[in-house]
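Please, structure for the following, as tokens.
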Amino acid sequence: MKKIVILLFLLILTSCSKESGSQKSFENLMSTFQSGNEDQIIKISERNFSDNPFNQYFFEEAPFYLQSFKKIKYKIIEVKEDKNTATIKFLIEAPNLSEYSIEPYLKLSTSQLTFSGYNKKEILFQATNAAYSSILARNDLKYIKKELSLNIVKKRGEWIIDENSPDFIEFVAVLIDRKKSF
């Protein structure tokens, strides 16, 4: 009899701890960003963002973001799922690159690249990427820390972010370290 009660208790415990489909989808999104894999990020961005902000051209101009994404941390606080909609409340930490001035890096890099045969735009892109790459390598990197909520909806059998979520713009802003002004 004790074995049956223990088995029943374990069955109930395991069924209660299963992750929801929306949570798995969100965790997949976040782990893809954390991987820093450009192709995977572009693919998942196409599926989750209508304007696809993380596309090939974005990473050609700012490849340092792949390094930045690897440093993202998150913790799910709460998941509320009801049929084809869900709300995920989470804490996110991402590098706060706006805390650092890249001007000293730019002066050094542009003076070194000026004689390299690149045009000014290429020099600026290379210098900016080198500056942020150096900053991201720091041991004392500063982070933005935000508690956000995103709505996740099920469309054509897949859970995707609802871009009408109140914190959607803030979420993207944290990922790319921009103020909430776009």
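The radius of gyration is 21 Å. Residues 45 and 51 are 9 Å apart (CA to CA).
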